[in-house]
Each structure stands twice: as structure tokens, then as C-alpha cells.
User: Fold this.
Amino acid sequence: MIRMLPAAIVIALAAHVFLGWMWSPIGAVLAGFLVEKKWLVAGSASLMAAWGVLMVWSWTRAPHETQEMWRVVADLLGNLPPIATVVATLAVACLLGMAGGWLGAGLYRVRMQGRD
Assistant:
């Protein structure tokens, strides 16, 4: 599983940067397709890692602006601490990654049934 994860993370990052966040689950679909048994973990880990890398990159490039953005979003969600924005973002990435991994595993099974 570990060998396939970097490819899925790179695909998710590239899709997020060049196509938009809604296309980043493509990396999770790829992870679910390439990992035979642990597709749920592979899908969620690949997308959480990709989104986490993007958040860390934003924070290293513009720390004050990124922290202010996290604070404003957390305030909009109900006076939460800024870390809640990061946790909520990673939770959404986890759920989208699980769905993408499930789809990829389903596509793998359909492909294997066609070979029988």
C-alpha cells in the first residue's frame, strides 16, 4: 500500500492545484484502485496528506495571512479556535478520500470481473 500512496498524493495535489479542490478526490480513486484490500485507508490517507501539504505550504509561504484566514473561517463557524478550520478541512478530506477509495475499489472489482 505504501508504494502506491505517493502517486495518489501527487495526482491529488496536481488535480487540486490545476483543476480545483473538487477534482482532488481523483487521487483517492487512484489509491482505491491500486490498493487491493485497504482502499478505505489509502483513499483517506492520500487526500488528507495532499490537503495537509497544501495547508502547510500556504502557512509557510504566508503565515500571517493563512492564520488570519483560519481565524476568520473559525469565527464564521461559531467562535471556534482557528485550529478548528484545519481539523474541519482534514475531516472533509478524510470523508472525500474514503468515498474516492470506495469508488476506486469498486472500479477495480468491475475490471477484475470483466477478466473472468
About this structure: The longest helix spans residues 83-115. The chain is about 80% helix and 0% strand.
